[in-house]
Amino acid sequence: MRQNPSFTLADIAEIRRVIEANPWATIVSDGSEGLVASHYAVLLDDDRDDLTIVAHVGRPDDLIHGLGERELLVAFQGPHGYISPGWYGDVQAVPTWNYTAVHLAGVPEILSPEENLQVLDRLVDRFEGRMPDPRGMWERPNDPAFVHRLAAGTVGFRLTPTRVVAKRKLSQNKPVETIETVIGELDGDGPFANPALAAEMRRAQDARTNAAGRNAAS
Question: Which PANTHER family does the UniProt record give (predicted)?
Answer without folding.
Answer: PROTEASE SYNTHASE AND SPORULATION PROTEIN PAI 2
